[in-house]
């Protein structure tokens, strides 16, 4: 009964909730670019004010980087911590956006209404589904469904440099019975998914310097070493013909998939043709002997995320450049050790660089993969609640993305984490024209209301 | 006698001549960037006015690209055509310049005074050495030393698309007994050199498209093909471990050096340690079994002049990009056929691109190598004249750069060309902080006066 009232309230409040999200999306909180530091700060202020508006004791907490937002509200029953991030990815290439990335709007599309703008899906829209569920519950019952700690980060898209120190310093304050994380998606845009396997991430930047200045390739071409030649030779050898990564020891700690999980995934009947077809591709590019679903969920990768060197403007310039650099990242699984891998990668590069060239590395954060325990009763409760809201029954799934926070909660706060989210495969997170389906936003809020109702004792203590 | 008067006039006029050059250097005539088209036009106007000021019948001649400047003046004796180019290279990376590239100035350096600014050495400063020599001769004698056609191009740094059509359409007007070209340098910054061997140039741009939009490497990393991976794999295979270029048929038409030229070059005693040491390198990077001088003068090369793909800004972005592209150029020698090589290179790339990826090529101009005949008596006369002006005797040398105009004069106007110039190895042509030694400018003007005096009958007809 009381759940129905809250769900009805959510339906009625949707337009107002959407307006609030658009307001947050207008703040260009790009965490990786120092030029936007003050915008990250504004986003944090906005969230503090919004939480306070529903009686939550919230504050902006300084870090050496962008601030955290922490809020507490008391309640009966279990103590949950909700995590989301308010920072967003850069927007370039800007020319590929159909609208200004930070001038969000509701657009009609053949597949229904979408909220278009940077951060709509990753992660502001998802974060707000939980906040709006709490707002509706509070409006109906005058209290929160249970004891809740709100924990919002502003550095998720830039390696979370301040996260672990902050969690260590505030462990007592942050510890709860269970963490709830909303930064993932539906399986195949359709099936609600609770993530139980998350890939880790390791980022490296390589810069190779050959001559100490740009040279004329007519005058020096031949005897002078070209750093782009060195860099492409090295990166061109990162994968072999079968898609295997060639860094020594790369596959140490990469487990085979347990038979029952392999079975379960097979049952999900993943359509890799449609998945790749959506982005103009056809053939899985990973290890030759693996299924596409394994390539995303349970196999490690090496990707060159960016490369630059020499003249890249209009026309042509016969320059023999001084420098060339690349950004490389690795998605990790199982027990792969990011620190050992960074060293192994650096050594693998080092031995391939001619003595003439200078080599510099820049570390860009690292996190191991995590395997989530589903023992906490909330997982079963949530699975039922999600199955009530969505057409398909909820699945226990893997996630190709890296959400290190889940592992950190376990490591530093000894707290299990439940990851659910409402993103769709075509949300274009990290790409131009990012969007979040209005349905994801609406049913996401309703889903949180159901989950909270399922794990909380209810306003009158009974459940 | 009359030569000494002209040389004295040149010495006295040097400050005024330098002021004129600085004026020309202030015009940012970057031909490869369409944004500077009007500046190229202004540079052409400036030259027309300057030639007219010494009684030369000069005009700006339209082309589909940047205009040509053509001037005629009558005189006794042989008819020479002088060629130079008024366009310059782009200036990026701008942050590496110690002064605004188009705000030139005379600077004192440990090695003497230099004219600092884009185009000082390549080719405005060199072009003006000839013009100033004519101006001085005209001032002293009231006539020019011989019949002269001035021919200035504005597209040399962007592949000279309009040059051949213009030469064909105006062959009668442009044909002379001998072409003089000032776009080369001294050998080892010291020895006046007449170039007899010039490398050709072939430019290609490759763009590889994988997914039809930028993707999130967490969501697609593994199954989705990354175009940077494809591009680096291909370009990483451009050279083998011994520095040999791997494009099929690349070495077809590459001749072995004739014994007597090999001898002569050995006698020049090229110091490759100093040559590479000047730019922070030590080991010749070309074919393992070739001398550094061969690598520059008589061996072909493949260089990656630029590469770009994915996220290259501050920080890190785990993007799996849609596109990656590179600019590649080849220096050609002997009978290497640029057209055949372009096709062979494209096919070599094509077969390495997975069917999933789109591949686009963009041609960026091509010119064969040229071998200059030194039969014309002017060559011997010039060698003596240069030996009189400079401390070391003049050498017949090769040139690693590509000055296709020499070959074009032969092919389209059946005219031999003599290439001499006063650039030094440390002029940083095509690089930040380009400069031209004031000594190069001064002795260059004097050298032209001597050459003209040697090949012309003199004002009173005797020689």
UniProtKB/TrEMBL annotation, chains A, B:
GO BP terms in the entry: proteolysis
Key word DNA-binding present: no
InterPro entries noted in UniProt: Cyt/Met_Dipeptidase, Peptidase_M20, Peptidase_M20_dimer
Superkingdom as given in the UniProt entry: Bacteria
PANTHER family associated with the record: BETA-ALA-HIS DIPEPTIDASE, SUCCINYL-DIAMINOPIMELATE DESUCCINYLASE
Entry protein name: Acetylornithine deacetylase/Succinyl-diaminopimelate desuccinylase
Annotated Gene3D superfamilies: 3.30.70.360, Zn peptidases
UniProt keyword annotations, A-Z: Hydrolase, Metal-binding, Protease
Domain Peptidase M20 dimerisation: 198-356
MF annotations from Gene Ontology: metal ion binding; peptidase activity
Pfam family, one: M20_dimer
């Amino acid at each position: 009964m009381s759940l129905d009232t809250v769900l009805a309230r959510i339906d009625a409040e949707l337009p107002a909730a959407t307006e609030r999200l658009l307001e947050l999306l207008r703040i260009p909180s790009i965490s990786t670019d120092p030029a936007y530091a003050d915008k990250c700060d504004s986003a944090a202020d906005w969230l503090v004010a919004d939480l306070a508006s529903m009686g939550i004791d919230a504050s902006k907490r300084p870090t050496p980087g962008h601030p955290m937002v922490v809020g507490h509200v008391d309640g009966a029953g279990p103590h949950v911590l909700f995590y989301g991030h308010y920072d967003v990815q850069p927007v370039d290439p800007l020319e590929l956006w159909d609208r200004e990335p930070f001038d969000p709007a509701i657009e009609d599309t053949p597949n229904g209404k979408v909220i278009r703008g940077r951060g709509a899906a990753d992660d502001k829209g998802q974060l707000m589904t939980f906040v709006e569920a709490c707002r509706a519950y509070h409006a109906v019952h005058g209290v929160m469904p249970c004891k809740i700690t709100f924990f919002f980060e502003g550095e998720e898209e830039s390696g979370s440099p301040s996260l672990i120190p902050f969690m260590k310093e505030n462990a007592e304050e942050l510890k709860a019975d269970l963490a709830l994380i909303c930064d993932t998606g539906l399986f195949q845009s359709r099936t609600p998914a609770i993530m139980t396997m998350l890939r880790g991430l390791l980022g490296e930047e390589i810069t190779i310097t050959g001559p100490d200045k740009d040279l004329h390739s007519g005058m020096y071409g031949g005897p002078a070493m070209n750093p782009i030649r060195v860099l492409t030779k090295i990166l061109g050898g990162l994968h072999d013909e079968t898609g295997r990564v060639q860094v020594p020891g790369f596959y140490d700690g990469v487990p085979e998939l347990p038979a029952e999980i392999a079975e379960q995934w097979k049952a999900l009947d993943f359509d890799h043709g449609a998945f790749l077809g959506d982005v103009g591709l056809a053939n899985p590019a990973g290890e030759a002997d693996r299924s596409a679903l394994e390539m995303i969920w349970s196999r490690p990768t090496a990707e060159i995320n960016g490369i630059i060197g020499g003249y890249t403007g209009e026309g042509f310039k016969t320059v023999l450049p001084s420098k060339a650099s690349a950004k490389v990242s690795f998605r990790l699984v199982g027990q792969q050790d990011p620190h050992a891998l960074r060293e192994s990668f650096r050594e693998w590069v080092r031995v391939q660089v001619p003595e003439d060239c200078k080599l510099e590395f820049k570390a860009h954060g690292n996190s191991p993969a995590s395997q989530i325990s589903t023992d906490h009763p909330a997982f079963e409760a949530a699975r039922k609640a999600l199955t009530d809201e969505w057409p398909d029954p909820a699945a226990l799934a893997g996630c190709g993305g890296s959400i290190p926070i889940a592992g950190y909660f376990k490591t530093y706060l000894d707290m299990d984490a439940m990851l659910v989210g409402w993103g769709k495969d075509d949300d274009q997170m990290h790409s131009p024209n990012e969007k979040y389906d209005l349905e994801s936003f609406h049913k996401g809020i309703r889903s949180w209301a159901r989950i909270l109702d399922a794990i909380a004792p209810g306003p009158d203590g009974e459940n």
